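Long-time lurker. I teach an intro course on protein structure, and each term I like to show students one example going from raw sequence to a predicted 3D structure in token notation. This year I'd like something fresh instead of my usual example. Would anyone be willing to generate the tokens for the chain below so I can use it in lecture? Attribution to the forum is fine with me.
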Amino acid sequence: MHEVIIVGCGPTGLMLAGELRLAGADVVVLERRRSRELTGSRGGGIHARTIELLDQRGIVDRFLAEGRPVHTATFGGTGLDSSRLPTRHPYTLALFQNHIERLLTGWVEELGGPIRRGEEVVGIAADADAVEVLLASGDSLRARYVVGADGGRSVVRREAGIGFVGPDATRSSLIAEVQVTEELPTDAKIDERGVHGLYPMGEGRARVVVTEAELGPANAPTLQDLRRELVHVFGTDFGVHDPTWLSRFTDATRQATAYRVGRVLLAGDSAHVHSPTGGLGIGLGIQDAVNLGWKLGQVVRGVSGDELLDTYHAERHPAGARALKFTMAQSLFQKADPRQEALRDLLDEVLRVDDAGTPVAALISGLDVAYDLGAGPPLLGRRMPDLDIVVPDGPTRVFELMHRARPAVLQFGGQPLSLGAWSEAVDRVPARYDGPWELPVLGAVDAPAAVLVRPDGHVAWVGEGSADGLSDALSRWCGVVGGTRRKGSL
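-- Reply from a regular --
Happy to contribute to a lecture. Here you go:
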């Protein structure tokens, strides 16, 4: 029996597999697709907080080497300057999903995470001790926990009986990569239906997005459907043929009512679907995975109790809900309607006043996420800034201390803190930093004497000259004193 089975090998499932391997967990990934490479480009990039998470794990250079930084974000028709956000990565990284998956796959394989391809999951059955995963082949596997990262039509979510609620679709679009024979328009077109465009990819291929005249059916679209819609919008189908992939998406917005039911958890599109407007999908899933991975790793190792997993829903469900609201608001501006254009023009005036657009840029980037960890200083629950610090071994960055996904107490002043029974599980790092502390949206904050940083990079305790509250925070987030919990106990 495995400790964890992950169903789905997209960016979310891969990131979670890597996190669990860093935690020393026995994990296997089941993927329906037989091919190692994703067919087609799919999603188009990741934002600042997701890039930071890759930096925290020491793998960001792989992605930066292949992607292209874009220093603006957009809301409505207004370009937002993200370069002023206090992060080492104040940009969106344009990089298609097939490349993101390839790079994450390489990382997971380096960590020894097995990926079983061609394994279609058709059902699950949970009992008090484990979850049985049923395969289309007739075989089955058992694990202490199962995580559904198997997309918007998640079998895991359905079988677990978890609700998936939210506004229905109002329009649908076709998206494809195809060969073309005619010259393409230089600009996207927007009309009362929505946004339409053809974007060259080289060697006679193009990425096509066209909004359908009527809400499309649930079944897969055909090349003839794509040709018909292109003719309706542009008067020509541009000779599209030989599709690498062709799909339909809608502006339906859904969120799971629970990210966890017993031994079954959801992450990524299994937990939330939305319009791709704004490009938040891949990043939301990776952020889910990093929040869940260390917690699930501690539970299966017997370091923490099962109740730690409840904090996954408590933290990520609100963060997901806020992002879904953004995508719904953004999608309103994806068609040419006089009333919506009036609202877009008004928003443009508002967002251009001083730094009015900064909170929206921080939301898009994911840098404004603050988990509710109780009352305390502004740093509590927010992501730890990547400060250039000096430690006993010399200069380093905070994120370089997080490559192994271990909790750490960074002490910047005051009497040396003792970690006591947690000294083996938590890194204590004496550090010096002489510059200002700045958080997205909040701006400058008072420099703390010490902080407890969780493996996901969020601050779990702030020391203001004493050790008050540190033991409680270590117990809550870093497990039982002395690791006395028996492995496998709940």
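Some talking points for your students: Residues 196 and 210 are 4 Å apart (CA to CA). Residues 482-490 have pLDDT under 50 and may be disordered.
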